[in-house]
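Researcher: Re-running this chain for the archive, since the previous output was lost when a drive failed. Same request as before.
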Amino acid sequence: MPYNAASLPIPDFRALFEAIPGLYLVLLPDAPDFTIVAASDAYLRATLTAREAILGRRLFDVFPDNPKDPETTAVRNTTASLLRVLQQRAPHTMSVHKHDIRLPDADGAFEERYWSPINSPVFGAGGEVAYILHQVEDVTERIRLEQRSQGERQSARDLHAQVERHSEEIQTLRESEILFRTLGEAVPDFIWACKANGEAIYVNRRWMDYTGLTLENAGDLPSDVLHHPEDFPALQECWRMAAATGEPYETEFRYRRHDGAYRWFMARAVPAKDAQGRILQWIGTSTDIHERRMAEQALRENEEQFRATFEQAAVGIAHVGLNGQWLRVNRKLCEIVGYSHDELVTCSFQDITHPDDLAADYAHLLQMLAGEITTYTMEKRYIRKGGALVWINLTVSLVHHASGEPHYFISVVEDITGRKRLEEQLLEAQKLESVGRLAGGIAHDFNNLLTAILGYGELIEDEFVLEPRAQDYLHNMTLAAEKAAHLTGQMLAFARRQVIAPKVVDLNGLILSLDKMLRRLIGEHIELVMLPEEGLHAVRVDPGQFEQILINLVVNARDAMPDGGKITIETLNATLDADYVRLHEGVAPGTYAVLAVSDTGTGIEEANRLHIFEPFFTTKEKGRGTGLGLATVYGIVKQAGGHIWLYSEPGQGTTFKIYLPRTTAPAEISTAPSLPAPPGGVETILVVEDEPAVRALAVQVLRSRGYQVLEAINGEEALRLVKGREREIALLITDVIMPQMNGKVLADRLQRIHPDLKILYASGYTENTIVHHGVLEPGVTFLSKPYTPTVLARKVREILDNSAPA
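Model: Regenerated C-alpha cells:
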C-alpha cells in the first residue's frame, strides 16, 4: 500500500510541537522581520527565554544576548542565511558559532554555548514558502569534547573529533496537519507516535527508508526482530517503567536496517496527556548515534591498550608532577627501584635519585620548562629500597595542558646496571692491557741489562781470584740481579709475554702435592681447608705457573689474617652460560674447572678492588710486598685462556675465583730432564744480537769454550757476513726482537740455503713470531733472558748434540 500522509491518524499537533524535545523556531517569511510564530520548549529552555516574550516579535529583537559575538554580526549572518532559503527554496546550514546565555540570578554571569543553525523552508498547499523552520543543534558538548581531547593522547584526537551529538528534536506545531507532516519529513531523525498501549500510529519517511517497512506492515513484525537481541530486554524494561510512571524516557539501542545490519540509535519519548493527566499518546524521536558509539568504543579500547602497554612495558614508565612527585608508575619501574606501587607514589624522584646526579637532572628540567629543549636523555643512579644503587638511562619529555601550560613529565627508565658493569670491566681490562704492554717493553730492555750483569758477574767469579770482601760484593751484586730478574719475570707474567710449556694436568693433584709447603707458608695460627671436587675437569696449564698462582693467593690470604683465620682452597666444575657472559666482559661461554681461594680476613675496600690486579699496586705496608703478586696471577690466568674474578667486602673476607677452560685431552706425563751436555766444542756459531753488552758476553763465553764465533749486530749484517759460507755454520743464536729484520725472518732465510742449520732464539720478551699466545711453536728452541754463561753453554751443547735441526 503506498504511503499516504493524509490517511494517517493525526495527534494533537500543538501538544506534539511543544512536547517533543528539539531546538526549533517557526518564522514567517516576512523579510526583514522574520516574525516568530512558534517555538519549541527545548529552544526556550536552552535560551532561558519565555514563550510569551518572543511569540509575534521580530527574530532579531529577541536574539539571545551575546556580548562576545556582537549582535550586528549575528544578525548579518542569520539574515543572509534566511534570505538564501527564500531565494533558493532549499535548506541552508550555518556555520557553528558561539553564544553566551545569561544565567538567571547569577549577577550577570553567562554560560558559553555553541550552536549549529539550519534554516529550512516549509511549503504551503500552493507551493509557496509558508514558513521557515529555524532549527538549532546545541553542539556545545561536542565542541567541548573536541577541546578536551586536545592535549591528551594524539592517537585519540581523531576519534574524539568524530564524536557528535545528534539531539535534533522536532518542534510542536501550533497549527495545521500539513505543517506537522512537513516538519516530520524535514528532520533527519526518525519521528514516531504511538498509542498508550504501544500501537504505532505514525512513522516518518526516514524510518520507513531505514527499516524497509511501512506503518501498515510494521505491526506485523515482532519488535525483537527490529532491535538487536542483546538490547531488547533492556528496551522492554525501559518501556514498562515509562508506561507505569508516565515520565519521559531516553535510551540507546541497536536498530536493524533493511539489509540486516545494525546501527546504534538514541530514542527519546514524551507522553501527550489529556486534561486529567491520562496518557493519550507517546511521541518520540530516534537519532542515529552510531558514529559516536563507535568513537566511544574506540576510545575505551585505546584506553585499555594504553593501560596494558603502560603496565606491561619492558622499561619503567612514569608520569611525574612538576614538583617531582610520582603521579603514575608502571610495574617495571617498581621492579627497578625495589618499591611497591603504593610506596613509590608517595614520594618524589628526588627521594630516590643519587645526590650527585640531582644537579644535572635539575638543569635539564629547567631547560625543558623554559622551552629550550623538548626532551632529554641522561644516565644517572637511583637508590633502590635497601640502599643499593642502580644505574638507569632516563628519557624525559614534557606534556602540556590544552592551554599550552606545562602539565606533567613523562619519564622512561631503562635499567643499565649490567651494561655499566660491563663497561667498567672493559675499561679495567683495557687499562691492564696497556700497563701490560708497558711492563713487557720495560722487561725486554731490563733483561738485556741483567743478562750482561749476571753473565759478567759469573765470568769474574770463574776467572779471577778475589779477596773475601770482593767476593762478598760480587755475591751481593749477583743476588740483587737475580731478584731483579725475578721481578722482570713477574712483569712478563702479568704482560703475558712469558714463554710457557703448558701440559694437560689434574689440578687436584697439583694442589694436594703443595699441601705441606702451603701449611709451612701460612703458619699454625691459620687453618687450611682443601675441598677438591671429584671428577674435576682436566685443564691445560704450565704446572710451574699454576703453583705460582696458588702460592701468591695463599700468601695474600695469610697476610690479610694477621690474627689468624681460615683459608679454603676449593675446586669445582662450572658451566658459564650466556647470562653469565653478558655480565662479565671478555668471558666465553663453555665448561671450566674452577679454583677458588677464600679467606676470613679483613676484606678489600671497593676503591682498592678496582686496582687490585695492577702491577706495583699493594695495600701492604712498605717493605712487605712488591705489588706484583696478583698482577702475576692475572697475567698467568689470562695467558692460559682463563678468567679471574674477585669477590670481597670489608670485614667479610675475600674470594678469588679462577676459571680455566676444560680440555678433553689425556693428562701428560712429564719426563725427567736429560743431563747437561759437555760445555765446549769446535763448531761455527753465528751470534746476532743488537744489544752490545749481551752480544759481547755471548761471544766471549762461546769462544772461551773453543767455538768458532761470528757476530753481527742485526739480520742484514748477518746475511752479508755469512754470504757464501752459510753451510759452514752449525748454529744460529739470534735475538727475537731486532730492528729492520727480526730473528725469525733471519732464521728462515738462512735455513732456505742451509736446511740443516740449527736455531736458538734468545729473548727477554716474546712476540708472536716464534710463539702463539706465549706457547712455543713446535720444534723451536728458546733461551730466556737473563741467562748465565753456564746456562748458555749447556743449551748450545744440547742443541748441537741433537741430530735433528731445531
